[in-house]
Amino acid sequence: MPLVVLTGGPCVGKSAVAAQLGGALEADGWRVVVVSDDSLRLPRHSLYASAGAEKQGRSAVIAAVERALSATTVVIVDAMNYIKGFRYQLWCTTKGGLGPSCVVHVAGSLAAAEAANAGRRGTGREYPAASIPAIWRRLEAPSEADRWELPLFTGTAGLILGIRQGTAGLILGIRQGTAGLILGIRQGTAGLILGIRQGTAGLILGIRQGTASPRPSSPCWPRAANS
């Protein structure tokens, strides 16, 4: 039951990353479910208007994730992941880290987000202008100090979407279980982003034939008996 949690400020490109990663995984034969504001029809004009509206929205996201998780489905969460405590709740849906999961932080700037939101006017996908800086102030960036946010990968949407051959490759299947190859840039290109090997998404999260390879350096994973 692989779980990929996308986080970052609003309008930084998370949905584009979710769409490309999901498409690459589906091309490799995975069943993919993207849980997002749009898929749940959460109203952006009022979603962050009150604490009560946010609570209802988060409850809807958790319920959708719990319904979608299975041994053969990759669930990509692209909704309301700004708060650290909520990401912990999502991690708990994988039975406290016993299932494979990771956090992908899409970096960006407030100014770029506001410009992107302004460009969405009239599309039904824009946030109220005042919501962008308000959400940005509340954004709690993920940290490798928190075990429920490991493995953690960070990069801008521009680099993540610059994957060679248009595939997400082995995102999360980082060689040797480290994030050291994130965006694996060589000679100024993002060709090896996130440790792509052989251009396939077949080993996302190190999964082979329905089992998950442990991430040795992460407290999320129990060490093998012979380690």
From TrEMBL:
One of its GO terms (molecular function) is ATP binding. It comes from the Eukaryota. The keyword Iron does not apply. The keyword ATP-binding applies. InterPro entries: KTI12/PSTK, P-loop_NTPase. SUPFAM superfamilies: P-loop containing nucleoside triphosphate hydrolases. Keywords: ATP-binding, Nucleotide-binding. Pfam families: KTI12. Belongs to the KTI12 family. This is Uncharacterized protein. It comes from Cafeteria roenbergensis (Marine flagellate).
